[in-house]
Design goal:
Blueprint lengths: L1 H10 L3 H4 L15 H4 L15 H4 L2 H4 L3 H7 L1 H4 L1 H16 L9 H21 L4 H24 L1 H11 L15 H52 L8 H33 L1
Helix pairs in contact: 1-12, 8-9, 9-10, 10-11, 12-13
Length: 273
């Protein structure tokens, strides 16, 4: 019944004036942003003085002077060499052995490094259309690989997400376009639900406040019934245990009522202050 009233209420023209709801269009978040891609971590901390992989193992560069090392460092080699070190650092987190290059885990780690490098680039140059397209393609490819790993090895899937600090966000099963009418209907339902819960809470408080006098009257009535049954020598239907049980309920209600009264006094004092 409530849903029918809500649906008919929403269809009425001028619902905005009747219900105190405000529809705000959600903020658009690009697909390459970490909030959409699921990357909880940025680029790893790689010092500018780090050497590229092809020079790091060279004996000559180890014995060279600091000026030569600085010339061959990633600071002077460009962004491409830095991106390779980022991918290598992520791959080393999950690599099984030194020759592990083409498993699903290493491919996901390599793609993740590339995605995070592109995200860093797009933060500086948000109008780079080619980088946006590449980032979206890589995010979709990583989702497919994660879906495959989740299906065939769930333990490794969870371990990989923890190591790379990723949140898995699968493709939606069906495209649902957000509309103002639907959002307004949901806001109306929430508003009606709040009203219903408020009235239920008020009615509950009213019943709880009436519980004490009711229990007290019940105790007096049970004692009267028991005394008359004893006096008239009738079968006794009210025992002492029944009366004690109701008395215990009454004492419990008194304790709860005292606590509520104290809480109301504290709240009132805080508002006055």
């Amino acid at each position: 019944m409530l849903r029918r009233l809500i649906s008919s209420f929403v269809q009425i023209r001028g619902v905005k004036q009747l219900v105190d709801t405000k529809w705000v269009r959600p903020e658009y978040v690009p697909a390459y942003k970490p909030e959409r891609s699921g990357d909880l971590e940025g680029l790893p901390m790689i010092p500018p003085s780090a050497l590229p992989e092809e020079y790091a193992l060279s004996d000559e560069i180890k014995n060279a002077s600091e000026a030569v090392k600085q010339i061959f460092s990633i600071e002077h080699r460009g962004k491409k060499e830095y991106n390779k070190l980022v991918q290598k650092e992520l791959i080393n987190r999950i690599r099984r052995h030194q020759y592990d290059e083409n498993t699903a885990e290493t491919r996901i780690a390599r793609i993740t490094g590339h995605i995070r490098c592109l995200q860093d680039t797009l933060e500086k140059y948000p109008r780079n259309v080619k980088a946006k397209q590449t980032a979206q393609e890589l995010i979709d490819r990583r989702k497919k690989l994660l879906k495959y790993l989740r299906q065939y090895d769930y333990k490794k899937f969870e371990w990989l997400l923890e190591k790379l600090n990723i949140v898995y966000k699968a493709h939606p099963e069906s495209l649902h376009k957000l509309s103002r009418k639907e959002s307004l209907r949901k806001l109306t339902e929430m508003h009606c639900e709040d009203i219903r819960q408020g009235k239920l809470a008020e009615y509950k408080n009213l019943l709880e406040s009436q519980q004490g006098p009711f229990l007290k009257d019940k105790i007096d009535a049970l004692k009267l019934i028991r005394s008359e049954q004893i006096e008239l020598q009738l079968p006794i239907t009210v025992t002492e245990q029944d009366i004690k049980k109701v008395e215990q309920q009454y004492e419990e209600w008194k304790v709860k009522d005292d606590l509520k009264q104290q809480a109301r006094k504290k709240k009132k004092n805080l508002l006055l202050e």
